[in-house]
Specification:
single chain; mainly alpha
């Protein structure tokens, strides 16, 4: 199917996402630019609407969050890194426990094959785990649905817990209006986004759309060239495309997949939630972090989604993202090696 043939589906997808956003805004619901598109596209996908993602446009939206994180990396944050060391050191333990619980759960209880079970349990990036699992012979559709369900539930439940359990209002300003930011800094942010993204892809950097812009923006921030996050309008646009993308992942899901795969993913999230709560409590009681930062740092969601929540919650973005980067890097570099060492292969 060429791009012109995809156009009607993509127009419908954007229209539905815009309708969802408008509905959430009018209803006064939280994070309307994230949850509105996500809810509208999820409902439409489950009833069989032929939705279509926006491809590179959606990927480009993630660069905004990469720049936002990079702009938050300041000399003051670098001085705080040693204070995070004890909490970050718990991340490998966290990953191993997730694997020890998740792999047997998916294999023995859910009946997935060994490869699909292994990569379904790994708390890495959605695209990365699907790619690694496919290369190893796993079931691509199952992996996509399991990880999409993980992200969907974490993104849905985390704001509720933040507001009800921790008393966070989620009204922290996400950025200044574009009109108030110097043109020079806006230009440098654009350069960081494009050069970081495409440069990262060229050198094979995983998660290039976020990590590449983050690295370039961090250099600009440490050099004193940028002093502020991307404008509010850009971060709202990033939320819109991320929410829409989560909903689109469920296009074509069947009742059988809902019963078996999605329900299995939901059950696994409940296990993950208990484990994340335990680590949050450990980190908080040990005085390694404030409760909100500890909660967001150990919530096993996607890096982009956790960045959005950290921003709107007014949390220490550097602390939260340092933990998620550590988790993603360890999983992406370690999962294929561990699979080979453990002899994980398709039946």
């Amino acid at each position: 199917m060429n791009p012109l043939q995809r156009l009607p589906s993509r127009i419908m997808t954007v229209a539905l996402a815009a309708l969802g956003t408008t509905t959430f805004v009018l209803a006064g619901l939280p994070l309307p630019f994230l949850f509105g598109p996500m809810a509208a596209c999820l409902i439409a996908a489950l009833i069989g609407a032929p939705l279509k993602g926006l491809g590179q446009i959606s990927v480009a939206a993630r660069t905004i969050l990469g720049v936002a994180v990079g702009a938050s990396i300041t000399p003051a944050l670098l001085h705080q890194l040693p204070l995070m060391a004890a909490s970050v050191a718990l991340i490998p333990v966290y990953i191993v426990l997730i694997a020890l619980i998740g792999v047997p759960f998916f294999n023995r209880i859910c009946g997935f094959d060994p490869v699909t079970s292994f990569y379904s349990a790994m708390p890495g990036g959605l695209q990365d785990m699907v790619i690694f699992g496919e290369a190893a012979g796993g079931n691509v559709r199952t992996l996509s649905l399991v990880h999409a369900t993980r992200v969907l539930i974490i993104v849905t439940i985390a704001p509720v817990l933040l507001t009800q359990l921790y008393g966070v209002s989620l009204t922290n300003p996400i950025g200044s209006p574009a009109a108030t930011i110097p043109l020079k800094e806006l230009a440098l942010m654009t350069v960081a986004a494009l050069v970081g993204w495409k440069g990262g892809e060229r050198v094979g950097l995983f998660g290039a759309s976020i990590l590449g812009p983050m690295i370039v923006a961090a250099v600009f921030s440490l050099a004193g060239w940028i002093h502020i996050r991307p404008p509010k309008e850009a971060i709202l646009a990033a939320q819109f495309f991320i929410g829409m993308g989560i909903g689109v992942y469920y296009v074509g899901v069947t009742l059988r997949e809902l019963r078996q795969v999605v329900v299995s993913g939901v059950a696994f999230i409940l296990l993950l939630a208990m484990l994340a709560a335990a680590f949050t409590e450990i980190v908080t009681l040990a005085g390694l972090a404030a409760p909100v930062e500890a909660f967001l740092a150990y919530a096993p969601g996607g890096q982009a989604e956790m960045t959005v929540l950290a921003i709107v919650a007014g949390a220490d973005l550097g602390f939260v993202i340092t933990h998620h980067l550590t988790r993603i890097i360890l999983v992406i570099t370690g999962a294929p090696i561990a699979a080979r060492l453990l002899g994980v292969r398709k039946d």
